[in-house]
Amino acid sequence: MANSNPQYPDPQAFETAWAQLVSSSWQNPQLKSQLQSDPAAALASKGVKFPSDVKLKVQDGESGITVVLPLPAAPPEGASARLDADDGVTVCSSCCCSC
Asked: Which residue in 6, 23, 34, 95 has a CA-CA distance of 20 to 30 Å to 59?
């Protein structure tokens, strides 16, 4: 699926970069620390950039996992109030965003 919203990274590029960072962080405590303290910078180092208003948080899986699902703003009055699969919302194994 092509990236229908150019301000967000391509989902496949995100998944590839995320997998590389996660596997590298298992052997590199400094990278793991960076992923937890500044995930946007860690992803940017792999060429994956998010808009500045997107807040990324990495939580150590050993302490449980929190999944945050964004609740989009309601459409303007008079617009369709139904969200279809063709509306550009992508849910993949690693992220949930309007890609």
From this structure: 6
8 A C-beta contact, residue 97 and residue 90? yes
Q: What are the phi and psi torsion angles at 88 (to 5°)?
A: 90, 10
Helix (H, G, I), strand (E, B) or coil at 90: strand
Token reading at 67: 């999944």
| pTM > 0.85 | no
CA-wise closest residue to 50 among 39, 61, 63, 37: 39
Indicate if the pLDDT at residue 71 is higher than 70.
Answer: yes
Crossing angle (nearest 10°) for helices 29-37 and 11-25:
130
